Amino acid sequence: MTKTLEENEVLHRSVILYVDDEKDNLELFRLQFGDEYELITANSAKEGLKILSSDPRVAIILTDERMPEMTGIELLEEIVTKVPDTIRIIVSAYSDSQRLLNALNRGRAHEYIVKPWRRAEVRRCLESWLTISKRRQDLTDKAVLANSLLDELQAPASPSNIIGQNGGLENVLKLATKVAKTDTSVLIRGETGTGKEVAARFIHDNSTRRDKPFIRVNCAALSETLLESELFGHEKGAFTGATSTRMGRFELANGGTIFLDEIGDISQKLQVMLLRVLQEREIERVGGVSTINVDVRIVAATNKDLESEVAEGGFREDLFYRLNVFPIFLPPLRERLEDIPELLNWFLDKYQHLTNKKPTVGPSLVQALQSCDWPGNIREFENLVQRALVVCEGDTLEPDHFYFDFAPTKPKVARGSVKDQVKTKQYETMKACLEKYDGNCSKAARELGLARTTLMSRAKKLGLL
What we know:
- The protein has helices at residues 23-33, 45-54, 72-82, 97-105, 119-141, 149-154, 170-180, 196-205, 224-232, 249-252, 268-280, 306-311, 317-323, 340-351, 365-369, 377-391, 418-436, 441-448, 452-461, and strands at 15-19, 38-42, 58-64, 87-92, 111-114, 186-189, 214-218, 257-261, 282-283, 292-293, 297-302, 326-329, 360-361, 396-397.
- By secondary structure, it is an alpha/beta fold.
- The strands form four sheets. A five-stranded parallel β-sheet has the order 2-1-3-4-5, with helices on both faces.
- Helix 3 (72-82) links the parallel strand 3 (58-64) and strand 4 (87-92).
- The protein is globular.
């Protein structure tokens, strides 16, 4: 799907431009995202500027920071004056953290991506900004909005981007809108896949801190030592491999919001350190002796029962109450089934580029989808919609498209209700996939696009484990 400039036709602003002086990075970006997005790459800032001046379809520019002749931030400064409506994303390492923070605070960059990038994180970033860019184009076409893109980005985010505002999430949005106007700490509770990060971003975008950084941290993804360095930074020589001083996520989020996902998984040591941040608004880098003041709004999230963790001694009671000043509970998808038709249409729009078509919804599909328990919630639903679009070869999306059948033959099962049919399909698919990988739940989960815990929970319910 990657195209040269000569092959492109001016249609609308949907092209992503990636600038990097290292050919290997350009090739990696093309390999990872070329089949999903319209891409143009440039191996110098000068070439990137030339492309921007001649191709009005560029919606997003990602640029490496360290390049000869002109750095990435210098390139973005040029773009601010020449093509101000372009979304600007800087790609760099943490060693450039102060420069990244300055670029964000001065409005030169809308967001940054840390090297080495993670594919899923970059995809989420691109999807989010493409949605914003498209929304602005639609509004401009209707002569509703004529302000600059920066003005729009600094305005409170509209709840219209959150599916379920008139259904299962109506009360959640009311609470989130109220607390966003304060600096109160928020603890978002909910099962995996219910959209806790989306809620956190909504709170930030509707707060007075919306023009400052929104920094995400997955507390469950790193060991205690690595997480400590990520959160608080470190001084040069603090440990083996610390070849330079590095700012932590709290410093990068200064003035803005830090989102601590999976907060229930942090160690007792880090709980004490986090409590100090909440109480004193100050940190110390690993290996450092200086106290650094930080002005950060904390939004945390967990899928754990923290009250039970507190009772059992696994989570500090004083920290829990500091975080839980304003709790928000996100309902699981099975409790907001009325939102499924709207969610289905949203994801069909989002992923129709995979097949260059948007099939119609069969008459029994919504009923079938509303008959499922959805242990993986919105994330599972999104994965299955994407998979169904690939599987569907006709013009109509049916329940059968939501499951792969790996088994060479199907056992004869009596045709019952739609719910029974869905469960039968689910059983067949999961059984075949587990057999394919000799019972390896991790491999089967990856194949099916589910979390390992979700697959195990569902397999146990179906009697497969």
